[in-house]
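Task 17 of the worksheet. Students: predict the tertiary structure of the chain below and write it out as structure tokens. Keep your answer in the requested format; marks are given for formatting as well as content.
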Amino acid sequence: MMHMWPEFLKDRRIPLAANLPARRISVDNSQQWLDAARVLRASEAQLLTMWGADDRDRDGCFRIYSAYLLPHDLLVVEHVIEETSTPAYPSLATLFPAAERMQRGIHDLLGFATDDPDTRNWLRHGGWPESLFPLRRDVDAEQYPVVSEPYPFVLVEGDGVHEIAVGPVHAGTIEPGHFRFSVVGEKVLRLEERLGYTHKGVAKRFEGLSQTSGHQLAARLSGDSAVAFSWAYCAALESIAEIRCSARALTLRALALEHERIANHLGDLGALGNDAGFAFGLTQFSRLKEDLLRTNVRVFGARYLFDFVVPGGVAVDLPEDGYGLLVDFYFTLQHAVAELRTIYDEHDGLQDRFRESGRLEQSVAQKLGATGLVGRASGIAQDLRVDHPFAPYDQLEPNLIVQPKGDVAARVQVRFDEVFESIRLCHALLREVPSGPIQQTFAPAAAGRLGIGLIEGWRGPVMIALEAGAEGTIRRCHAHDPSWQNWPLLEYAILDNIVPDFPLINKSFNLSYSGQDG
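Model answer:
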């Protein structure tokens, strides 16, 4: 809605290097930063991510960035903060609630303050001194003594109210997260999360890498989204290096991305059946996922595709028998999943556990910024492959999968529908695999160029903001997982449910700890 833009923002949007239409605005002061956010909120823009930068070595300033998804393009807003003892900027949390935890994370890493009332640490966990901010240019990457600190959870009081602490260590091979329940009997009155236990200093690590090796770290940010993150990184790099991958390489990337989507949905459908007491579902979907992973080995060279997407293309080509092998596999997979869907839909015990459990109303989901699979299961019709199709999806016409009810059952149905849609897309990709090279060589991007890579992973949009350094290095790289937006929504979905249903509801979201913690 360009007519709504205030005078100070008109004609300021300049093109930004990205794999989809993107622009960038630099605002002059804090009031303009807030005014831009207000206009974007009124325009129903989605806040994708926020990140900060220490540019004092370049111009004596700090910077804060916010990235928004609009109907026709991506907009990055840049706010320059003059160097002070405590750099500060206005909070966006009242306009975009998802900003609150992002801002707390930025404070822990860079020391930027906001006017938000919640100033508790989010990522630090006592892992470095309060007066030290590891992403500042004058701080060396080194180890610091861990100082255990109590976290001030919000206290809920009243007759019959008591607390249940779950985690951060869980009874299974999942990552750590702390969930503090306030309950009466088994009914949940409040859930408060504390994450950040898997913070690894990824942004600092990127600064020591070359542009042509950063994709390897990106692929390992969240292991179940390796293709999505490595593609986002390569898309950002290829944008600022001004190269275009061949149509063949992009087709193979899309095949790998859809395999990643199918594998995660199969695993989740089995785990959701198991959490509802239906072990048969776990065994059957685990078998199908294993078949897919073995197919990956034969076609892409590895079970999990951490190193398949590389700058300029892909690492390996389809083998000679790859086409026939994949077509046969997709036929078998589709038939098996259709049979299992019938069993799930007709199993009264499963449906009793799924229906109405963990319901996230569409109005709440929209207000709080739900994205990806979680958003689509609550009636939010957003998918980058459909709304902002990047190649080769711009030639495929993907179908948008949406369910309105927002409960566990809806999230299960979205997974089933997306498995079938991914199989359809894979068939379409295989029908006309273009000829050509699978990799392009290129020179590193010039220092100072900022590029964006945005890819629809299986959870939702994953984003990389990459700024080139001198002599082929990375000056900074910010990675964003959609779990940042969706973790707070789990606190709403559990309200008025019972404690024993939490594992099922949590699994129906299946958010990334590692991707969020960074």
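Marker's comment: DSSP finds 17 helices and 14 strands in the chain. The mean pLDDT is 94.
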